[in-house]
């Protein structure tokens, strides 16, 4: 328990920020997981459409301080490389 009024206020703000950061991190994981699933399924056209959304989610996470810039850049690069490494699906 906080001992002072300022510590109480700090605790409330900290809890609010924690909730906000958790939701951003959770969204990041969800978006990346969806992208990886589409790539694994071999749907390259769909994955190409999803990639900008993944990049945007990482940029927003950096903006709010949830993820550091180098981490986001590394993840975005590796996701783009996994997409590029997959051959295009054969048209039927």
Q: Could you write a compact summary of the structure shown?
A:
The protein has 92 residues and is mostly helical.
Provide the fold topology.
Elements lengths: L4 H36 L3 H20 L5 H17 L7
Helix pairs in contact: 1-2, 2-3
Can you describe what's shown?
- The structure is a single chain.
- The protein has 92 residues and is mainly alpha-helical.
- The chain has a single domain, classed as Methane Monooxygenase Hydroxylase, Chain G, domain 1, CATH 1.20.58.
- It has three helices and no strands.
- The protein has helices spanning 5-40, 44-63, 69-85.
- The model has no long low-confidence stretch (mean pLDDT 93).
Shape: elongated
Task: Count up the domains.
Answer: 1
Q: Roughly how much helix do the residues carry, as a percent range?
A: over 70%
DSSP strand count:
0
The end-to-end span amounts to 65 Å
Percent range for β-strand residues: under 5%
- Count helical runs: 3
CATH architecture title: Up-down Bundle
Rounded to an integer in angstroms, the radius of gyration calculated over CA atoms is 18 Å
Oligomer: single chain
- Mean pLDDT over the full residue set: 93
- Spell the H/E element sequence: HHH
Name given to the CATH homologous superfamily: Ribosomal protein S20
CATH topology: Methane Monooxygenase Hydroxylase, Chain G, domain 1
Largest sheet: none
Find the structural class using helix and strand composition: mainly alpha
The CATH class name reads: Mainly Alpha
Point out poorly predicted stretches: none
